Amino acid sequence: MTNNIMKSFSISALAILSLSFVGCSDNNSGENSSELSKSMSIDEINSKRGDACECIESTLEKIDAFTVKMNEGVFLTSSELNSALIVAMEGCMTPTGHKDADAAWSLSMSGCENFMTIRNSMIVVSEKAAVLKKADQDAFFKSSGGNTDASEILDRLSSKKKK
User: Fold this and answer.
1) CA-CA-CA-CA torsion for 152, 156, 162, 163, nearest 10 degrees?
2) Of 44, 84, 112, 119, which cross-links 53 as Cys (Cβ 3.0–4.6 Å)?
3) Of the candidates 110, 10, 19, 121, the residue with the CA atom closest to the CA atom of residue 70
4) Where are the domains of the chain?
């Protein structure tokens, strides 16, 4: 029973991570999704991505290189980390924007031998992103003089853009 719970959690975690890349990417996935759903089946969409386990293997290499850079402190803000992660995950892990196809792809990857390894790597990246986001927020709060008045903060941001 705990294996089913862990597998369910793992599938959910990867699906959430995959969907977060959709939110962070610049492509217009809404248009892509409707075009894909009209012209291709879920199996056809996912077959273009290749083999799920090969995808995991190739992505592990990219994630390993990414985490080395991350641990060296190359990414100073959460925005830098997220941008670099999107680039690192390009390819077979890039969501199509077709929710059913992306969910099916996540499910097929969950059966791969190294799925838990990539899931654990993504958790480490997520934790680092949270630390950097907190640092970003703390720096912003400090730069605002501890002021939490929204109108004054917006005024300060506006005056910074004019400079």
Assistant:
1) 150
2) 112
3) 121
4) 2-162
